[in-house]
């Protein structure tokens, strides 16, 4: 189905009729489709809502160059529009960034952060990228691509949004999260190494960390059964 939220036509789906609300937010470059298998299992216990975030899947692109806070604002409005109250918010990667903001704003009853982005890595390329940020727009595209990640190189007309989003380190918000939080990480995640999972766990009071053994950055695609088992064990 489709909903118009803040002037953006968004694609979304609802599964299950459980009493608990569960909102799933996909990662950068993804869509709700990649979470459907896990969502169908979770729908046995929850009312599950999946949404293509603005600019992804078949949802319209934002009219401006949004950062993560604009995405969080939009998701709040989406929740109001669809009647989602006191949800568990599950966010993967980029969607995990949005989930962190929602948790810090007290808009979630529970968080599930799956290989969540938001803890920025200060390696050589990242430091150089930050140093060059003011002049980055004027650099030749080949040089931009050298500094950029695969997500940057494939971002297309979402590139300016991507650059803005990855410049927003969210670790200062971790201590503002007061709801129960489950951190789930792929053991072999090379995009967001597992030390970042530990930073998030330590930053959120009472957070629980579970590992999906043998999975990389996409445990919902590589190990959906194992991920589903962990979620069930943790009461999701």
Automatic annotation (TrEMBL):
InterPro entries: AB_hydrolase_1, AB_hydrolase_fold, AB_hydrolase_sf. GO terms for cellular component: membrane. Residues 22-136 form the AB hydrolase-1 domain. This is AB hydrolase-1 domain-containing protein. It comes from Candidatus Amesbacteria bacterium RIFCSPHIGHO2_01_FULL_48_32b. The lineage of its organism: Bacteria, Candidatus Amesiibacteriota.
């Amino acid at each position: 189905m489709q909903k118009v939220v803040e002037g953006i036509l968004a694609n979304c789906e609802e599964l299950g009729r459980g009493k608990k609300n569960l909102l799933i937010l996909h990662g950068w470059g993804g869509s709700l489709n990649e979470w459907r298998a896990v969502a169908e299992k979770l729908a046995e216990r929850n009312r599950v809502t999946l949404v293509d975030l603005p600019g992804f899947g078949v949802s319209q692109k934002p009219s401006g160059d949004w950062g993560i806070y604009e995405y969080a604002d939009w998701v709040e409005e989406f929740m109001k529009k669809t009647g989602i109250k006191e949800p568990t918010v599950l966010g993967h990667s980029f969607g995990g960034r949005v989930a962190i903001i929602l948790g810090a704003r007290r808009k979630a009853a529970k968080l599930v952060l799956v290989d969540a982005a938001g803890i920025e890595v200060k390696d050589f390329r990242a430091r150089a990228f930050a140093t060059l940020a003011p002049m980055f727009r004027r650099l030749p595209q080949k040089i931009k691509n050298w500094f950029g990640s695969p997500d940057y190189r494939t971002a297309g007309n979402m590139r300016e949004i991507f650059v803005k989003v990855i410049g927003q380190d969210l670790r200062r918000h971790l201590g503002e999260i007061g709801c129960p939080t489950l951190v789930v990480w792929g053991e072999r995640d090379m995009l967001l190494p597992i030390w970042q999972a530990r930073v998030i766990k330590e930053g959120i009071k009472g957070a629980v960390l579970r590992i999906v053994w043998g999975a990389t950055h996409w445990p919902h695609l590589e190990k959906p059964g194992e991920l589903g088992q962990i979620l069930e064990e943790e009461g999701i």
